[in-house]
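Input (Ribosome-binding factor A):
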Amino acid sequence: MESKRQQKMASLLQQELAAVLQRDLPHLFSGGLAPGISTVKVTPDLGQARVYLSLLLGGDANERLEIIKDNAKEIRHALAKRIRKTARVVPELIFFHDDSASYAAHMDQVLGTLHIPPAPKDVDDSDDEKPTRPRLFN
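Output:
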């Protein structure tokens, strides 16, 4: 269970990191799309932030993640410039690939290929009788 302080810091980091990756450091992705930030989780001491990136569009996900990890220091520096008046300490950034969207697409494809027969119809149903309502008062 995250504290309010962790939630506020995670929200701030998510917004500002998205802006940093899209506006301040677009050269890291050589003309491709900047990754989306799915989730940010901050440790209780606010020393580390785990950043989960959505890398579906724009090429090989592992290659793009390595580029981001190699430039983590530059990303953290650009982030520090943006949040210097809001946060006292800029947490260490640890980047992860968030593959939940691709997993959801895979599960949707698997469920779409299943053959589920329709439920059998009951033979005892007679449509001419109305169901009786339970009596609430005697």
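The beta strands are 36-42, 48-54, 92-97.
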